[in-house]
DNA sequence: TATGAATGAGTTTTCATTCAT
DNA sequence: AATGAATGAAAACTCATTCAT
């Protein structure tokens, strides 16, 4: 090995891909992604053998990114509702700060380029969240739901809320709060 | 008139487009859509001058289709919760019976080919639903939310629920019920 | 024969074709030509079996139109130079009044859709002009030239002069005069 | 640089385009141009981003080619008529040797794909010729004409003369001479 | 490893012509 | 005779991928 792959370039490609996918969908061209990443067209394929590989790796990278942001500062000792609110606010704030990443994730979610395997791996993020809340189920505060539905509810309601925030950024607080009320109503027992 | 435009062909194109968009996204080719509709490539453009027109008309047709299914048999005299449950069940049943249409709608929702005007027109469907529930707001049963959020919540939670149903069709009842609980919790006051 | 072909429609098609060819070249679509003529797409082919036929008939019609305009009022008894000047001025005036027709003729002149037969037939116009001037050759006032060159010279110099006039219509007089001086110099003996 | 753009390929495309435009007009397909140039269809667009760009660059290349041929060996010290004759003969000889290029130029001249900017740049060729003859105006040998008319006259009369030469190549001398007489008559004072 | 020219299959759209009405 | 829907073969252009440098 003369030179190892540059982590920096790899990240530049992923960042550029996120922007491109956010604004153009998964049909964003590799040429554009490469150019915006500051590398040559061919170099992209040194790091990702096919476009599909790039798409899937982007999906995982975004999920991981979000997870890191959401899990930080998790208040392990607070009560269930407060912990849920922490997770909600973190998710919204991450999405509000990273609109391109969120929009890219939405595009990837509906694309058939993202394999079942990637989806499964990506799901782990919210499974982690769910397990954070196991105590909530035990205590009867959270409503029992089929496997995966809590995570999915979290996903779609944050997404929906963010859509409103993107349209009216200065009402962030209002939407975040109203969204949380819907969220808490959706997942808790009366 | 030499030959009138055939309503039948127009519908065949829209149906074919729905299937194609459901499985391939909006990048589904007009050639495939035409072929599956049983017409020549050029004929598609007799009915829809551009692909973008087709995409937008498809969006509106799907919304209208869904609305028709959902509004049928609406129990005007029942109480608010029952009326909501009626709407919920209708939506889920429509989606369960028309997976391609639902999937197509998801693809269209994230596509920038669908114009703001089409989105606005499409929104009317859920606005109608919301207005059906106005009494619910007046009586304090439904939680007050920013304009549009109730409709959006309905949309994303039915979508999410259907995703589970598509994966396990024989658990339709379970998911529909659990979904409604989340939905009712999300929109009602405690 | 139920109804005979309508001369009026035929002329409308030719007029529309002239305009279309003038502005778009011979690649102007038959659909546009038909529409601007106020008839249906298919009707055009009732009058002209193929587009090539239309193109060639248009060429001949334009030549005939021009010839009619140029020959009117020819001063048979005037001297050679005066007769030439009459022809020149008529040509220029016709072109100035009918820019679309002139431009269409230019487009047709370079198109390979116009057959050699049409060209030959079209040439007759200027051959007639040339024969009007036979006396000029006999008397030695006009320079002897190879067959056809006088006609061709007339054609290209009027065309060139008109190009200037189209750009600056209010200098018509100046260009017409200067053009004639060049023309007379080109065809007469010193 | 991976591989530099090949000047050779660029020239092959321009040469192929000249041939295609000469015989088929500006509607000659990029597919044919590419094929005849010995490259893939897509490669053409590596060298010329759009067909319009190719058309305009071809126009300029042809003008430059002609200018080079015409200006070579210009007899600066000869008298005005001899210098004009030199220019005339050079022009005719270039056109006789390069019929495709000349025909392509005629097609381009009437095409609206050639922009005003290209035309202006192309005009410089004949403006140069005109300025070579400035002394001719000063001395009163050449007739005073509106700006641009001398250049245009040169253009259309060479074109016309070449048309005859293409039809009867073995009479080149005769047509060139007769053409020059017309030309000299057109531009000089009696 | 990095580059970007080269490729050809695939994309949307146009169009002369046909033919059922 | 008149109509305009239907056709499918181009047309210009894009793009993921390969490979010579």
Please give a structural write-up.
Four copies of one chain form a homotetramer. In chain A, 38% of the residues are buried. Chain A contains ten helices and no strands. Chain A has 190 residues and is mainly alpha-helical. In chain A, helix 1 crosses helix 6 (99-110) and helix 4 packs across helix 5 (80-97). The radius of gyration of chain A is 18 Å and the shape is elongated. The first copy, chain A, has one domain (52-187): Tetracycline Repressor, domain 2 (Orthogonal Bundle), CATH 1.10.357.10. Chains in contact: A-B, C-D. The A-B interface holds A 23-27, 106-107, 110-112, 143, 145-146, 148-149, 152-153, 155-157, 159-160, 163-164, 171, 174-175, 178-179, 181-183, 185-188, 190 and B 23-27, 106-107, 110-112, 143, 145-146, 148-149, 152-153, 155-157, 159-160, 163-164, 171, 174-175, 178-179, 181-183, 185-188, 190. The structure holds a DNA duplex (21 and 21 nucleotides).
């Amino acid at each position: 090995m003369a030179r190892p792959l540059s982590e920096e370039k790899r990240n530049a490609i992923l960042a550029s891909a996120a922007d491109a996918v956010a604004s153009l969908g998964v049909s964003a061209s590799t040429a554009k992604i490469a150019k915006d990443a500051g590398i040559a067209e061919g170099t992209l394929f040194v790091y990702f053998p096919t476009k599909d590989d790039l798409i899937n790796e982007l999906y995982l990278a975004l999920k991981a990114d979000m997870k890191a942001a959401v899990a930080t500062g998790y208040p392990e000792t607070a009560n269930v509702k407060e912990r849920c609110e922490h997770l909600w606010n973190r998710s919204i704030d991450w999405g509000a700060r990273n609109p391109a990443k969120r929009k890219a994730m939405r595009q990837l979610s509906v694309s058939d380029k993202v394999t079942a395997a990637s989806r499964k791996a990506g799901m782990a993020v919210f499974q982690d969240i769910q397990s954070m809340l196991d105590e909530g189920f035990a205590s009867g505060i959270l409503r029992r739901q089929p496997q995966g539905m809590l995570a999915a509810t979290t996903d779609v309601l944050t997404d929906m809320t963010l859509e409103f925030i993107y349209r009216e950024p200065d009402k962030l607080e209002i939407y975040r709060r109203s969204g949380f009320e819907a969220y808490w109503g959706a997942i808790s027992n009366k």
